[in-house]
């Protein structure tokens, strides 16, 4: 915003004055008969005449500017003295004593120029002060300067707007003080309602402080409400609800020691409650022999709960049970088919290993099934082999039996192949299948087919 303009008249006034001088000189017969437009232009009389006209034009322009200033900031005695000197210069000018007139006018030009320069400087200072006061929202300090500036420059829209802003700011000061009084009286809702219609851009520091005070009050009320509700939940051991209340309270006041301690207590109890619920769930599933489901519950629990000693112990126990069950299932698959010596040893080891866990129904049933099948597959069946004492007899899997008339073997259920060989006779092969719990078997093998 700038309404200050240097006061000066255009050079057209000077040019007009000079043209008037030329016309007068040409149209009026001077006693000296000087031709100031021609050959006498360089004479002192003509030079003084031209200088007097130029100085007079400057005085007229400056004087018109000075007279336009309402309530000027300069010393009026100095201004009136300059006007008196101007009148003296006019007398000399009218008497065509141009040298004295020019000297008087030149003195007046100097004084008026200084007065107007002082005016412009004062107006600039007033403008700067007024703008600084407005920027700092010091409306009462800004208004006197703006009143004076508007009087000096009534056509400036920027100054008019600035004065209106200062006037509005002063009027709003009463509302600000009322809002502050409401806050001191703890009438925060009323103060808040006042602030909703308060114009923006005025008393920003005071309005900001008022809004902060209202926000702090609301935060305090909300914090206290959440803490009270959380303590009520604690008293009734509703730990999850207490946890949420204290968490919300800490969002409002992150540095509250009371809220942090209450939250820690709630967290501890929530974790303890969660641990109790998890252990109870695991125990129930274990009793129901739903071991995989129990392990899944553990894996889905927070790591902090998984690390608890009770949960780790249950996990190891459940993993042992599922591992034993898998071994039993594998062993049952083995005993369903004929076994070799290594397989029988492995199955026997599993039966002995699982004895301590047989109290679990699922394991006990599978272990009983394994034992029954193992007993069936490991109960020897009498196999009687007859021959002619000349045929070499072998049994696979097994060994060479040699020559004999009759041999009795106790074999485990399974498939066997008997082979008979004799020099000069064709080899004889015979397959025998021994079923579990079958009656004794008899096989005759003789090589009696010559080549």
Short description:
With 451 residues, the protein is of the alpha+beta class.
Structural description of this entry:
The chain has 451 residues and is an alpha+beta fold. Helices cover 66% and strands 9% of the residues. The strands form two sheets. It has a four-stranded antiparallel sheet, with no helix packed on it. The protein has a three-stranded mixed sheet with strand order 4-1-7, with no helix packed on it. Helix 10 runs parallel beside helix 13 (309-335) and helix 13 (309-335) packs parallel to helix 15. The chain is elongated. The protein starts with 10 loop residues before the first helix and ends in a 7-residue tail after the last strand. Residues 1-29 have low confidence and may be disordered.
Please tag this protein with its features:
alpha+beta; 451 residues; 3-stranded mixed beta sheet; elongated
How much helix is in the residues? 55-70%
Q: Low-confidence parts lasting 5 or more residues at pLDDT below 50?
A: 1-29
Order of strands across the widest beta sheet?
3-2-5-6
Structural class assignment: alpha+beta
Give the topology, please.
Layout: H1 11-27, H2 44-67, H3 76-94, H4 98-135, H5 139-152, H6 157-184, H7 188-196, H8 204-235, H9 239-252, H10 257-287, H11 291-300, H12 303-306, H13 309-335, H14 341-353, H15 361-378, E1 381-386, E2 392-396, E3 400-402, E4 406-411, E5 414-421, E6 428-434, E7 441-444
Parallel strand pairs: 1-7
Antiparallel strand pairs: 1-4, 2-3, 2-5, 5-6
Helix pairs in contact: 1-2, 2-3, 2-4, 3-4, 4-5, 5-6, 6-7, 6-8, 7-8, 8-9, 9-10, 10-11, 10-13, 11-13, 13-14, 13-15, 14-15
